[in-house]
Design goal:
The complex is a heterodimer of chains A (235) and B (298). Chain A is α/β, with parallel strands linked by helices. Chain A contains 10 helices and 10 strands. Chain B has a single domain, classed as ABC transporter involved in vitamin B12 uptake, BtuC (Orthogonal Bundle). Chain B starts with a helix and ends in a 14-residue tail after the last helix. Classes of the chains: A alpha/beta (235), B mainly alpha (298). Chains A and B meet through helix 2 and helix 3 of A and helix 6 and helix 7 of B.
Chain lengths: 235, 298
């Protein structure tokens, strides 16, 4: 479980998150929706220690995260797939996966085998540079590299970004399966609300730095009054 | 007969040029290692290597074995460079790009002044357990001595070791990742700060090897590596600041070219030709000959 309480983050005078409270239960997918600039990316970057908040607290499985270094947070079992996937283009597929296992100090050979079974396309392309992969393959590599660390919590920043609708669907289904199979706690940040809500158990909506709902995903999907916020049409 | 003499002369030039060139390559490799890891051009590389060469190699005056003295220089070189990163450079990473350059130029001046104060400007001459008399072939001297061979072998061994470490080990994978994508590496649980410090340490050790090699050829003075640094820098820029292989090839290439100019044309022109070559290469390929920088924007 990951609980974010009264979190406020500012870049200088610009407030990115204002008193945000979100709880993501263990073994469930919690979507965080919102328009561009709503603070979704900032939320994930604060959880993983890349951004220092002004106030508030974040706890993950009983560990207080605020003030910890990003690498220490990662080693607590929190994997963050950043916006744009963050695969290292100059590394081969296998080197990217290897790096994930090294960072988490998990068994490299067993991890590779497991991820190749999960993503056969990565095995086919294991000697190719990540720069040569398609967007969907790159997202799979990013997921595989996160999962090789055996995380308990997975933070995903816009996995659908730049992907064709069918590929997006495929990736979303994969996330759902990963979560179901390993009891993973997922926070899924998305602008593509429709795809995200389909696989999520809960959903929070962020609007200009404030959280305005954390409810079961089906309820959020059905609530017409919320739609304008995450579709980016609210004033 | 004439063809024979010419061939001999060319072979000797290439041997002599390569001997000098591998030292350029070593200096270039130091610059490349630090540039790749932390995007800092270490202008104090020469004086840092000089200083640790003094610390180790002058111990031979107290009857210390050559190899032990050289090992001291290399180990102190590693520690000194790593400490420089931690104490002086690290606080400057997120400030203006000019700041680390200014500080390293300051360190350059400081170390040369300090070395002159401690060891004076009178050259010290540590001796290597290798003769500097050229090998003979059919009664004629060749362009290579045992000492020159040691220099080439030492430089190539160091470069092979560094290349192997970076390309074929888990530590190397982490070092490269920390340099290429520090933020992503942190998100994967890698201790990027430590690895960047290690990168500086390795560069310092490589620099110390260059210092040791030069010390047994031309002696140790506070300014012993200044000219070498210029050519090492040219080699790094021509090879591409991101490319260790470029550093090796460009260093040896410049050494041989300068020797040929010196022998067949005019020794005064050798330096000028190296600088002209740099300008021409940078006009045609600003990223250097071996850099894959264009592939980085993905």
């Amino acid at each position: 479980m990951i609980s974010i309480s009264n979190l406020s983050v500012a870049y200088g005078a610009i407030v990115a998150l204002d008193d945000v409270t979100i709880e993501a239960p263990t073994g469930a997918i919690t979507a965080v929706l919102g328009a561009n600039g709503a603070g979704k990316t900032t939320l994930l970057r604060t959880i993983s220690g890349l951004v220092k908040p002004r106030s508030g607290s974040i706890t993950a499985n009983g560990h207080a995260l605020i003030g910890e270094r990003p690498d220490a947070i990662a080693r607590l079992g929190i994997a963050h797939v950043p916006e744009g996937r963050g695969v290292i283009a100059e590394f081969t597929v296998e080197e990217n996966l290897h790096l994930g296992a090294l960072g988490a100090k998990t068994n490299v050979a067993a991890g590779l085998e497991e991820q190749y079974a999960l993503f056969p396309v990565l095995k086919e392309r294991r000697k190719q540079y990540a720069a040569q992969l398609s967007g969907g393959e790159r997202q799979m590599l990013a997921l595989g590299r996160a999962m090789i660390a055996n995380p308990q919590i997975l933070l995903l920043d816009e996995p659908s970004l730049g992907l064709a609708p069918l590929v997006t669907q495929d990736i979303m289904n994969t996330i759902k399966i990963l979560c179901a199979n390993s009891g993973l706690t997922v926070i899924l940040v998305e602008q593509n609300a429709k795809s995200a809500l389909k696989i999520s158990d809960y959903a929070a909506v962020l609007h200009v730095g404030k959280s305005i709902a954390v409810r079961p995903a089906a309820e959020v999907a059905a609530d017409e009054s919320l739609r304008s916020y995450y579709l980016g049409m609210a004033e | 007969m004439i063809a024979n003499i010419l061939t001999n002369r060319l072979v000797n030039d290439i041997a002599g040029g390569a001997t000098q060139g591998v030292v350029f390559s070593l200096v270039a490799l130091c610059l490349v290692l630090i540039w790749r890891a932390t995007r800092v051009l270490n202008f104090a590389q020469g004086p840092m290597a000089m200083f640790v060469t003094y610390i180790g190699m002058t111990q031979m005056e107290h009857n210390l074995n050559f190899w032990v003295a050289a090992a001291i220089s290399v180990i102190v070189g590693f520690v000194f460079s790593a400490l420089t990163e931690i104490v002086i450079v690290k606080p400057l990473y997120h400030t203006a790009e000019i700041n680390p350059i200014v500080v390293m130029v300051g360190l350059f001046t400081l170390l040369e002044a300090l070395a002159a104060a401690i060891w004076t400007n009178v050259p010290r001459y540590p001796t290597a357990p290798f003769s500097s008399i050229n090998f003979q072939s059919d009664g004629n001297p060749t362009g290579l001595s045992p000492l020159a061979s040691f220099q080439i072998v030492a430089a190539l061994l160091v470069m092979t070791f560094v290349a192997g470490l970076f390309n074929y080990t888990s530590l190397g994978l982490k070092l490269r990742a920390s340099a290429l994508s520090p933020e992503v590496s942190k998100l994967l649980g890698i201790r990027v700060d430590r690895l960047l410090t290690l990168g500086w340490g390795i560069a310092g050790a490589v620099g110390a090897v260059a210092g040791v090699v030069v010390s047994v050829n031309t002696g140790i003075t506070p300014g012993m590596l200044d000219a070498l640094f210029v050519f090492g820098f040219i080699a790094a820029a021509i090879g591409g600041l991101d490319s260790p292989l470029g550093a090796l090839v460009a260093g040896i290439g410049i050494g041989i070219m300068m020797q040929l100019v010196d022998d067949f044309w005019n020794s005064n022109y050798a330096d000028i030709v190296a600088v002209v070559l740099l300008i021409v290469v940078l006009m045609i390929r600003p990223q250097g000959m071996f850099s894959k920088n264009s592939a980085r924007r993905v």
